[in-house]
Amino acid sequence: MEGNYIDYLIIIVFLIVITTVGITAGEKQKTLKDYFLGSKTIPWWAVCFSIVATETSTLTFISIPGLAYLTNLNFLQVTFGYLIGRIIVAFVFLPAYNKDELKTAYTFLEKRFGGKTRSIASITFLFTRLAADGVRLFATAIPLKFLLNINYPTAIIIIAAVALIYTFIGGVKGVIWTDIIQMFIYLGGAILSAIFILHLLPGGWEKILSNVSSAGKLNIIHLGFDKGFSGFFSQPYTLIGGLIGGAFLSMASHGTDQLIVQRLLTTKTLKDSQIAIIGSGVIVILQMTIFMILGVLLFAYYGPLKIKPDEIFPMFIINVLPHGIRGIIIAGLFSAALGTLSGSISSLASSTMLDLYMPFFGKKDDDKKQLRISRLFTLMWAVLLVFSAMCFINISRSVVELALSITSFTYGGLLGTFLLGIFFKKARQEDALAGFMASIFIMITVISLGLAAWTWYTLIGVTATVLIGGILTGLSEKSTNDQLHV
Length: 486
What we know:
CATH class: Mainly Alpha
Structural class: mainly alpha
Number of domains: 1
Order of helices and strands: HHHHHHHHHHHHHHHHHHH
Largest sheet: none
Helix content: over 70%
CATH topology: Sodium/glucose cotransporter
Number of helices: 19
CATH superfamily: Sodium/glucose cotransporter
Radius of gyration: 23 Å
Distance between the termini: 88 Å
Strand content: under 5%
């Protein structure tokens, strides 16, 4: 029982420190620019670490080791696609954003197409992020429920309350600086777990490598041509599928999603934001490698078990790790969760305030009123995320698949709309909206019927949007030319 108190103390101290740092780092907020853009004074390396922490949720911390335990290292092919996508964002999207003083990702759509496109894109982001991060918040509540022997609603409220406190007061500055601490805590926890397993396994590193290699756990490259044409597209972790799918998913999540774009807009210069986004891709490859090696080591420790892959790492934490180390690892798990949750709350509030409230209702508000309303939106979205998480308590489906499916419905359409605006100079608002709506219906069909693996979802949505929007643009241009020659 005394050991449990050590774990509780570590977790409580972690939560207090994170809250204090978040409040202190973001104090003296006076304007919307302070609250949502950090006055554009955040150094690139801080933004880089914050991006990594924000995209690393509890699902990543638990599921990636579980995936490696169940399969092998094929997922790393996707992470190299992530880096390719971020390089494209750095040199295609960010210069387009930098031409004007953009406050959200969707300001670009208004300047390019019109206010209706901006509003629809923002509303799509809000509902998609609310549902997907509701799933992530519920996933974080699972270990807290068992650790404290409380029910799910209570666990969900505790986690959301901590994230809300420093996000509400500190704004995006508080979120970014706490993200940095959280990233090193959860990475340190994963490395500590791997080291502990190595000490538990007899025979040394060479014997471990021999055992996992003979089981096929160290395979990275998978071409995927052995199952024919239809089988190729049904496999998520092939070389081509991983590189293309990872690139397009990263372009969507880091080029059009306010959750990440908000951070990129806090840097001083375009070059800083470019370095930050590309650097985050390199760190993610290293991070995922650590998580996957941990999963391989878990296989070496347990061997094949009839258990859900998402449960293997939590089982090891609870049943094997000694008290104290267990508390550090669980603090790491909460770090991954709070990084995503606080970023989600801030991005939801910023998009609501800047994309929806200000254009229609707040043009005459002074700085003090704008800041007060922004904090009210922050509070509102934290409460809504709690209710969203509670909706998933009785869901039996894998939370990873559920979160992925939710974002996949709209990511392709959003990315396609941005690409249409950048590369099709004569595309109209009507063309963009038609392409976007068509892609959502196409994705509903693809996902519902299981026509392709998840790594192809974003590419399918992008293709549908750009193809339909481009055709309509061409038809409109032809009609205009015909009228001119009449």
